[in-house]
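fyi for ur records
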Amino acid sequence: MKPMTRRPTTEAEVEDYQARARDFSHQRRYTEALEICDWLIDDPATRLAGLRQRAAVKELQGDLRAAINDLSAVIETFAMEPADFHSLGLLQLEAGDTREAIISLSRAIETGDAAGSTYYRNSSLFFRAFARLKIDELAAATKDCELLPAGYQTHISGEGIVSREALLDQAKRRAHHGS
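which gave:
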C-alpha cells in the first residue's frame, strides 16, 4: 500500500483514498481498508468521508452496528445528504431496527426532496413501505406505495426483486385478512 503521508487537499484526492479503501475491502483486505478510513477520520477536513467509507467497509464485514454508528456520526455532523439517511435506513432495516429505519428513510425523503433527488425519494418511499409492512402499519405502507411510480421495483436483500405492486398487494391482503 502506498504510504499515506500527505493529507488530501482536493475532493478528487479524498475520492481517490475512498476508492483505495473500497478496493481493499472488496478484496477482503479489511485491515488496510480500515487504516485508510481511520486516517481520513483523524483529520477534521476529511472526517465525514472517512466515516462514510468506514461504514461501507464495516457493512461488508457484516458489522451492521458499527456501520450504523459511523453513519449516525455523519448525520450528527451533517444532516443534509439524502444518501446518508437512505444508507442508514437500509442498515437499520437489515439490523432489525424497523422503527429507526422508518425515521431515517423519512429523513432521506425530506432531504432528497429538498435536493430534487427522485432516486432517494422513490427508493426511500419503497423501503419505508416495506418497513411499515413489517410492523403492520398497512395504511401508511399503502400510502407510500401509492406515491411511487407504477411499475417501480428494486432489490430487497433476502427477497429478490420486489415491485411496488407486490407491496401494495401484500398490504391489501393483510388488511383484508385483518378486518
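The CA atoms of residues 80 and 114 lie 9 Å apart. thats all i got for now
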